[in-house]
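just leaving the lab so this will be short. below you get a single protein, a line of residues and a line of whole numbers that encode the local backbone shape. id like you to explain what the token line says about the fold, in plain words if possible. thanks a lot i owe you, the record is right below:

…
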Amino acid sequence: MIVITAPTGNIGRHLLSLLLESAPAAGEELRVIVRDPARLPDAARGRVEVVTGSHAEAEVLDRAFEGADAVFWLVPPDASLTPQDAYIGFTRPAAKALAVHGVGHVVGVSALGRGTPLADRAGLVTASLAMDDLIAGTGVAYRALASPSFFENLLEESDSIREKGVFTDTVEADRKAPFVAVADLAAAAAGLLLDRSWTGTGSVPVLGPQDLSPNDLARIMTEQLGRPVRYERRPLDELYATLVGHGLNEAFVQGLVDMKRAKDEGLDAGVARTPDTTSPTSFEQWCAQTLKPAVLS
């Protein structure tokens, strides 16, 4: 039995689709935790066991983890909380339930940066790495999918790209870093969940096919969208003031700012790119399949 948290989110929906294709042949049953079962895809109906509720709640987790062999764990960041509460507080009931129910394997979504000089001052990433330690401390076999920034983050810029030909971030324009499509993370998770021959704890970096700078992203978007797109660097203090002005928790916003500062200082550059850490979806592919329809809609 494989349990999937956040099955309707960006990563979870891709993972659920992959497991619906592969799990039956592997003799695996699927169970999902979801607040609103109506949001599940039609392909899942009658083929997965549904536990309704939030995976922040101990009672929901007790029902979901009973008899489970493996769990896909994803924390949806909550900007109304501090980073500590958003990651550690949210995960603490799960850590208890994993131990109580003797779950053997967990695959979690985390971040790059472990072992670097920036790891303890990277805001949300620091909290995510502490979440990994909490899960690993339960004694389960654990693999953290160590991810860089997602291509999908650019979907938040689709209106600006459409209307102004501009996208923004806070990093230096020529700073190259890995980027990844969420579908590639889902594929890595599916492989680990279906073949549980691994033991112990560790990280699995998923780096996409190449490092890219904001200027590289702008060039590729210009080519793929057939219209000029340029990058504008946004000051960190301006980002902080804007988000706090929108009512987000000040500590969470500071965690976001600290993460972005660390990324601009090379947080995501600590893992060597190898065939094992490289994933297939290129930014060109992602733009054509995902960004272009969003921008042109």
Residues 2-150+179-208+265-280 form a domain with the Rossmann fold fold (CATH 3.40.50.720). The chain has a mean pLDDT of 96.
